[in-house]
Amino acid sequence: MAEKLGITPALIVPPHLQGQVEAKLAYVDESIAAANIAPDGDRIEVSLHKKLAKSDQLILEEKVQRVVQEMAKGAIQPKVEILEDHMDRPLSYSADPMDELLSSGEVREEHTGIFTFGPLMSRLIEVFEGYFLELADEFNAQPYRFPTLISAEKLGRVQYFQSFPHSLTFATHLREDLDVIADFADHAEYEEAGLNTASDSFSRIQALLSPAVCYHLYFALADKALPGNQLAATAVGNCFRYESNNLTTLERLWNFTMREVIFVGSADYVLENREKARVHMNEVLADIGLAYRVESANDPFFVGEFRRQAAFQNAFQLKYEIRALLPFKEDTLAVGSYNYHQDFFGRNLDITLEDGSAAHTGCVAFGLERIAFAFLAQFGLDPKNWPQAIREAYG
Ligand code: AMP
Ligand code: ZN
């Protein structure tokens, strides 16, 4: 049986923060398997991989208290702004689709958080991609292709390491040293917890696996005037966010795919197009019959930056999420987001407009696996039960 540890937080965790604090507790200590906050926010139950010595238990408790303190101290519940509410659409499925997806071999888990997809998921994702490409066409967005690796130097310039250190995935290689490479070739073996290779065999980090798509565009535009003074672009790419214990179903993947439509230009240009995109998607999602809400949100900043950055995003209406209903758990899942970064990237990367000011940026981002998963959670795996628009596009 799993070891449990009950902790009374020094501060009550308010309901609106419980999910976000729980998600962060996964990163507190390697011995934590899961963490649950009681609905009243006055008790935290931590499940452990193994029993801890009293001294280690105290260290763990202190870290849990620190997370609660940093995230919840003085937190004021932000007013959730709901731009659309289509939660009451008729649906035809209420089970967890993961069971059927796994038993039919349509989805296979290669490793924690790494899944492969069969023909049904692949074709369904193609159908959604068709809708997103139509959205991109409305802005005459130009196609781009971006690499899976992303520059550590450039990510540092946009303070990514301060904002999201917990979810980074690093790329490395063996050092250019004959002895190191030969030793690796002779001895490398996967043991229970990973490769048995000494960490000094690996080079210093120059690149990471990309956590988002639009950063590549901003990096490409850095340190110069924006050609044409405004730009709409679209790209799809592999994205990586290490989500620790939260990586158990298709809801959270370590490696997922994102389609983005990206706007760079004046504040008005970016904001008008973000809103135009929302109105367009409102019609598309009505056609599909998806049950969802669009509401204000914040990014999952790490503890130290959480309160300040999340409050800032809320105050300036920088992020809205498309949250699809998951009937089997009476909860919602973000399948896409409408983002406005103000001139954050323009300033930090020195992307300038004709008048010399920093460019503003924004993006509309869809998680392809997630939208397919949410759709299957609402309509099941049998195309006969799907809304007509999707059935026809699926063929
Ligand atoms: P974000 O930039 O965080 O707004 O992400 C854009 C979209 O990517 C989200 O709305 C999700 O659909 C998807 N996404 C983000 N993180 C993950 C993840 N760990 N696994 C699967 N999809 C994700
Ligand atoms: Zn983006």
Mean pLDDT: 96
Which small-molecule species are bound to the chains here?
A: adenosine monophosphate, zinc ion
Distance from first to last alpha carbon = 48 Å
The total count of helices amounts to 13
| Rg from alpha-carbon coordinates | 22 Å
Give the overall shape.
globular
Looking at how many chains there are and whether they match, the oligomeric state comes to single chain
Secondary-structure content class: alpha+beta
Low-confidence runs: none
Number of strands: 20
Helix content: 25-40%
* Main pleated-sheet profile: 8 strands, mixed
Summarize the structure.
The protein is an alpha+beta fold and 395 residues long.
Characterise this structure.
The protein is an alpha+beta fold and 395 residues long. 36% of the residues lie in helices and 25% in strands. It has helices at residues 15-25, 54-72, 97-103, 119-138, 152-157, 160-163, 178-187, 214-220, 267-288, 303-315, 344-349, 368-379, 388-394; strands at 3-7, 32-37, 44-48, 82-86, 107-111, 114-117, 142-143, 149-151, 170-171, 190-191, 194-195, 207-209, 224-225, 231-240, 255-265, 292-296, 319-326, 331-340, 351-352, 360-367. The mean pLDDT is 96. Residues 212, 241, 243, 252-253, 256, 258, 299, 334-337, 365, 367, 369-370 line the site of adenosine monophosphate (AMP).
